[in-house]
Fold:
Amino acid sequence: MQETLKILVVDDDEVDRMAVRRALTKAGVQMELSEVGDASRAIAALKNISYDCVFLDYGLPDLDGLTLIKTLRSQEIKVPLIVLTGQGDDQIAVELMKAGATDYLSKSRISSETLAQVLRQSLRVFRAETQVALANKQLRESNELLRRKNQELEAQRQKISLQNIKLLEASKLKSQFVATMSHELRTPMNAIIGFSQMLLRTKSNEFTDKHRDMLQRIFNNGKNLLTLLNEILDFSKLESGNLELKPERFNLSNVVKATVAELHSLALEKKLSVVVHDELKDPMVINDSVRVRQIIVNLLSNAIKFTESGGIQIEISDLPEDRVAIAISDSGIGIPRAELDRIFEAFRQVDQTTTRKYQGTGLGLAIVHSLVQMMLGKITVESELDRGSVFLIELPRQTSSLIPQKIDAKAQESIINSYQKSR
Structure:
């Protein structure tokens, strides 16, 4: 079905208006045709009615066609404008097109074919320009929206950056404070431990059994407090990136067995068996023996602490690609599955209450995890409630060099994130 076009003819000459009407009718154009004889009525009609096309005489009695076109365009009246001229001046045609005319046609060339062709072409051009204008408008709106969003994101980024700077500064100050306080507290604590140990070794009859029991408690609690202080100090060094590895060549089997021997009395108190399975073909490794011992002490102490009956097994074995494995398994209380992904976070303990049965800072596993990362190794855990846990450490047999290794930026960031999550 052919569309019906609403067409306005603006011409003060009735004969010329009739010629346009006849030519369009003969061409078979379906239309609703309106006619006016001057510019003022044309402007009024175009303000009130939406036309599909306007045939506009160049020489009107109140305004010339060029001025009328400029007036219509200045008032944002958008409609195809076909100017009908009585003269073939090319310069006038150029000015008309610049002002906003869609096309122009000499009145001497008006026929059904030419008029229909110009009409179709003008409608096609106008609709294409309208679509382009709409697309450009939408593009400008999208660009403006993106610009505002980018400004908002940039403001948020700057805010987050500032917050990160403040957090890092706070973390640095906190680490400095913790390190200073740990050093300050260790001095009197070492004195307490030393004097109580010296008194315990005294053969004087002045001390009754009750006195010796009290001295023993002072000595034991002092050692426990010193262990906690050492953990906090190590953590602050790890967090600030100041803890260094000092690689050396040592016998891994001997370090593991010596550490087990040191902690054997704790296991005996709970009547737990501790068995070492050494399957290393070559026990010599290059690493920081002090920190390796610290890792084993932390894991073995935890295994003893959380095991009430049964035993603990430590297995040392070779791995492909010149690596070694240390596995510590126990028959203790186990770890809930939901907590397995978080146990290496700083200050994280399964039981966080003040009345918990098992005491500690919650730093031991965080320190172990960070030390293993520094050694370019990895640590995994498998556990089941009431069935026990297995901690598996994989380490390279030899570090990359004998230069003291500092914790890398990624590991340091992991420690800071763990601390911030725990707050």
Observations:
- The chain has three domains: 5-110, 162-236, 243-422.
